[in-house]
Amino acid sequence: MTTHLGPTRILIADDQEDVRSGFRLILGSQPDMSVVGEAADGLTAVDLARALRPDLVLADIRMPGVDGLELTRRLAGPGVPDPIRVLVVTTFDHDSYVRTALHDGACGFLLKRSGPGLLIEGVRAAMAGDILISPQLTVRLLQTLTPSAPAPPTRLTPLTARETEIARLVAQGHTNAEIGMTLSISPGTAKTHIANIQTKLKARNRVGIAAWTWENGLANPTPQN
């Protein structure tokens, strides 16, 4: 994957024309993004990706011919000599799909119902070398990967009380806007807090914050007596 200048060049692969049109409108409205191609099936998407060499392919899971998982493997999987970034955006939230896509090189896994804000954030995260997963999927995956027993309440934490509160909301799958509404702060303030939390925890992204929070038994609110 080579470094690029100018807007992120995006190829949209989805078998539903209305979905492609919606994504094109959302992404095309961003000054740092440009849609350079569309495909209604996986095989066409693979061929177009190899011909156009976009910076990123948005791929649905279920498409005619070659599905999104196979597309990801062909374009970004292990052993691909010149991989292309693939961001999976789908209605299907099966854990096996998430794990397979990420194992085969996907740079994110988003649910269509997550909304346009997360789609834009996912594209930018992918271009920054990060991985973004829809919050509701993050929560479910972490619940299966981390022990259910809470950590001792005396465990030391580098976070302030407010940062711990925000980390807990991140671990529960809330977006910046939802965190802002819950705590009566602006989404920008929530984003600043999250950046500070990432620095303190040396976490690469929200998934790292969520994992740390679950592993330390801080993901669930403290019961009130």
From TrEMBL:
The cross-references to InterPro entries, in alphabetical order and at most eight, read: CheY-like_superfamily, NreC/VraR/RcsB-like_REC, Sig_transdc_resp-reg_C-effctor, Sig_transdc_resp-reg_receiver, Tscrpt_reg_LuxR_C, WalR-like
Which GO MF terms does the UniProt record name?
A: DNA binding
CDD domains xrefs: LuxR_C_like, REC_NarL-like
Indicate the segments forming the Response regulatory domain, all copies. 9-127
Q: Which GO terms describe its biological process?
A: phosphorelay signal transduction system; regulation of DNA-templated transcription
Transcription: is it a keyword of this entry?
A: yes
Reply yes or no: does the keyword Transcription regulation apply: yes
- Record PTM 4-aspartylphosphate, positions in chain: 60
Q: Where is the HTH luxR-type domain?
A: 152-217
Concerning Pfam families, the annotation shows:
GerE, Response_reg
Q: What is this protein called?
A: DNA-binding response regulator
Q: Which organism is it from?
A: Streptomyces albidoflavus
Q: What is the lineage of its organism?
A: Bacteria, Bacillati, Actinomycetota, Actinomycetes, Kitasatosporales
